[in-house]
Amino acid sequence: MLTTPHTPRLLACLVTAALLSACGGGDDSDTTTTTVALYKRAGSVQCGSGGLTLSGMERELVEAGVRVITASCGNDGTIDPALCGLPDGQIGIFEVAASHAQAASVMGYVPLSNNPAATSVPCTDLASPAPKPNA
Question: Residue 112 — φ and ψ, nearest 5°?
Answer without folding.
Answer: -60, -30
